[in-house]
Amino acid sequence: MAKTKIAYFCQSCGFESAKWLGKCPSCQQWNTFVEEILEKSNASVPNWKASPASSQRANKPVEVADITFKEEHRLLTPDKEFNRVLGGGIVAGSLVLIGGEPGIGKSTLMLQLALNMPNVKVLYVSGEESDHQIKMRAERLTPQPPEGGAFDEPGSLTPPSGGRGAGACFILTETSTQNIFKQIEELQPDVLVIDSIQTLHSSHVESTPGSVSQVRECTAELLRFAKETSTPVFLIGHITKDGMIAGPKILEHMVDTVLQFEGDRHHVYRILRTIKNRFGSSSELGIYEMLGEGLREVSNPSEILLSQRDEPLSGITISATLEGMRPMLIETQALVSTSAYGTPQRTATGFDTKRMSMLLAVLEKRCGFRLGTQDVFLNITGGIRVEDPAIDLGLAAAIISSHQDIPIPAKTCFAGEIGLSGEIRAVNRVEQRIAEAQKLGFEQIFISKYNMPSAAKDKKRLDLSRYTIDVKPVGRIEEVFGLLFG
């Protein structure tokens, strides 16, 4: 009989305690500790392999110069947006965690990816749906089998006749990690998808699936499998009511990449955002459109984020922003009206409300606009949230345009950060912003004069001869309003 141990875990951060505590000393949350029974197995570290012959050799310290490194090979998927957020493709042996709201499309994204990867054998493990339910969704996503591959019957784990390189999607409905690893040894897939990590359970831990200890143990077993076999593993994770990934915080530290799938249910567009990435940029973003046939990648997000208007309207401007390495033009809307109550309202959708208050204070102090008794509403169209300070200038222009009821020319774009003294600060990668505005047919763009070359040695900083768009460098916010409103 294995020796059992009782411990208490914080459901918020995963902190372990020998006794129950009312307040977690790690995350300072109240009433988050739950009792869990831990079983101390005879084996010191459980191995994912069931075969006793596969003994692990002891690792020894190796000097960095003596480590042999082959050229990095990434597995490219047919989804260019997915390749972008991963940093250029799937890295062998990587462990990727994908989180998001219920019903946002996490399972649809991964099943669609598994069905459309040619010459790759994918094992899709589901602990939430039956094989018949997955088959129904697969038929909706891919009415015809993808080129070079086939969709096997539900529950079938028979390798395709074409061998390991033929490509196929296999479905396994199982929650026990030990049974999953047995099927993996027989099938030897190229990519493994787990839907979801909170439904798995390991026999090495005596607690319910989804508990802190089970999530940590199952992730550790999958991590060892990924690193030892160089097989990419994708984990779909639930989130809490606060928007955080359910389970211990160590879950995000253990994996190589954390992706957040987000979006408004009332909009058809979804955003796949990189939170952490050991193999690429952690600020990349991919945009999808949710359709009846699945998710469609959006290659040019600027065209969908800009509305088509027949006549000029006040309070609307176009700002050039960056999401990762991708330049985008977004539409910023502002509405300024007289407050009907004693305290004016300040509401922002898709933008930081505190930063909006800072911009209103700068406009009132430096430019003389009396906005203290006005209700101000800001909106970033498309249902996305932007934290790039380069849209400050466009938001300020939209606020004054609505306040004065004077429309801004439709072919005008803005890219500049506003400081507390009213100066227009330089923004990074302004060349990409200008090129994106020129590609979409804009006639002029306002940028900071500090992005312009100030001396002969800085001429490489910004070469305006390459652009046909009229670039207007400004240094103060008063100059912008003088050029726009006279």
Write up what this structure looks like.
With 486 residues, the protein is an alpha/beta fold. It is 23% helix and 26% strand. The protein contains eleven helices and 23 strands. The longest helix has 18 residues, at 212-229.
Distance between the termini: 86 Å
- So what's the oligomer here? single chain
Tell me, briefly, the overall form: globular
Give me the secondary-structure category.
Answer: alpha/beta
β-sheet strand percentage: 25-35%
- What percent of residues adopt helix (DSSP H or I)? 10-25%
Mean pLDDT, as a whole number? 83
- How many extended strands? 23
Estimated radius of gyration: 27 Å
Biggest sheet overview: 9 strands, mixed
Walk me through the topology.
Blueprint: E1 3-10, E2 16-17, E3 33-40, E4 74-75, H1 80-85, E5 90-91, E6 95-100, H2 106-115, E7 121-126, H3 131-141, E8 168-173, H4 177-187, E9 191-195, H5 212-229, E10 233-237, H6 250-254, E11 257-262, E12 269-277, E13 285-291, E14 294-297, H7 301-305, E15 316-323, E16 326-338, E17 346-349, H8 353-366, E18 374-380, H9 392-404, E19 412-415, E20 417-418, E21 424-425, H10 430-439, E22 444-448, E23 470-474, H11 477-485
Parallel strand pairs: 6-10, 6-11, 7-8, 7-9, 9-10, 15-19, 17-18, 19-22, 22-23
Antiparallel strand pairs: 1-2, 1-3, 4-5, 11-12, 12-13, 13-14, 15-16, 16-18, 20-21
Helix pairs in contact: 9-11
